[in-house]
Amino acid sequence: MIQSCSKPTVAHYSVRAERLGALGENARLPRSVQAIYLRPLRRKAEYGLPVCDLQLRSYSVDNVEFFADFAIRAAYYLNLPVSGPVPLPRLVQRWTVLRSNFVHKKSKENFERITLRRLIQIKDGNPQVVQTWLAFLRKHAFYGVGMKANVWEHESLGTVYPSLEIAWITQLLTTGDMTDVGKAMDESLPEIEQSLRPYLAQFGQRENKSAENAKFDILETGRFAERNNQ
Amino acid sequence: MVKMAGMFRPRRLDLSGFINTRVIRDHNKRMAIEQTEPERQALRYMIRNTSLPQRVRAQAQLQLSQMHPYTRPTQVKNRCVASGHGRSIVRAFRLNRFQFRMQAIAGELPGVQKASW
Questions:
Q1: B8 is a domain residue
Q2: Which UniProt keywords apply (chain B) (predicted)?
Q3: Domain match, B63 and B105 both
Q4: Residue B61 domain boundaries
Q5: Is the pTM above the cut of 0.90?
Q6: Residue A60, φ and ψ in degrees, nearest 5
Q7: Which of the residues A88, B13, B60, B63 has the least number of beta carbons within 10 Å of its own beta carbon?
């Protein structure tokens, strides 16, 4: 899954490739070193299920581009299919302030801060490997580049409600079609409700909640009573 | 109850950076608000809860009104961390407009540049 990169990046890689050609006239560099001069390699995503969104932010293009490149290479060596870096819209913050410390209202100056963002998406990754990748990036964090990751974990229905999945599979095996799966799920609903009841009964309450009329006693005790006496 | 602001003042000054009286006062207010927040919220809850007896609610109102002004969240004022100034603070940097300009020109604020568009 090779994505076309933005124009300056392509030029960047072609310059690097030229440099590589000049280097390799006499003897070839090791493959791993050669790879640094070339566009990062990528794994193919089998299912395309997004697992992790990593957003990189920086005030300088060089830093964020460099680190996005680094993150993609790291993902390749961890066997993680990756898409990106997607250049997200820049965040422009502007401030207008008076030039002077006192009066002179009409003489002002503008300042701005532009935050550049890149989005890197991991697909079909094992959650532990994704965590490893994120930890690796955190360990080798680059100066002036912030990171924010949204991680999604997926699990089968069977891990939550084993009986549900058994019903589902038996349905599938006996009839051979998926049309009655909804019916099977409906049938197993009372059982699920039964198992959830103790949790729902406590919804919005603390487990160790005290007596009902505790709030009436609050005013008579502690700091409140002290204030009354003063 | 005697309303003394001094009771919110710590023995040792737990502040660093630019300090003047107003900065310390604001800091004390923030500390006081932090400490008394549960109490205030409990009273506010009682006052608004129509299922409570009228007497309890009236008492709660009275107690809330008797709390020290320093425990009121509206008393907090953002002040410049570099000069203690209380007006036109740039929230993102907690700096006064003039301090902001000087530091931005000196390149001390990451990513902030002179803008022209």
A1: no
A2: Ribonucleoprotein, Ribosomal protein
A3: no
A4: 20-76
A5: no
A6: -125, 140
A7: B13
Whether A111 sits inside 8 A of B114 (CB atoms) is yes
Backbone angles phi, psi at B31, to 5 degrees: -60, -45
Inter-chain CB proximity B100 and A111 less than 8 Å: yes
For A16, A24, A130, the CA distances from A27, given in Å and listed in that order, are 17, 5, 37
- Angle in degrees, CA B103, B108, B109, rounded to 5: 90
Nearest by CB to B56, from A112, A216, A228: name it: A216
**Are A53 and A105 within 8 A, CB to CB?**
no
**10-residue averages of pLDDT along chain A (230 residues):** 45 73 74 86 89 94 94 93 93 95 94 96 90 93 93 70 62 62 75 84 66 63 61
Residues of B in contact with A110 (CB under 8 A): 114-116
The model's pLDDT over A48-91, given as tens digits with 9 standing for 90+, comes to: 889 999 999 999 999 999 999 999 999 999 999 999 899 999 99
* The pLDDT of residue A230: 52
For residue B113, give the nearest of A112, A219, A227 by CB distance.
Answer: A112
Ramachandran class of A111: left when φ > 0, alpha when ψ lies in -120 to 50, beta otherwise: beta
B83 in the same domain as B64: no
Contact A93 B92 (CB under 8 A): yes
Of A127, A126, A116, A113, the C-alpha closest to A85 is: A116
Task: Report pLDDT digits (tens) over B5-32.
Answer: 778 888 888 888 899 999 999 999 999 9
Q: Are residues B71 and B27 in the same domain?
A: yes
Cβ contact (<8 Å) for B90 and A95?
A: yes
User: Cα A221 to the chain's mean position, in Å?
Assistant: 48
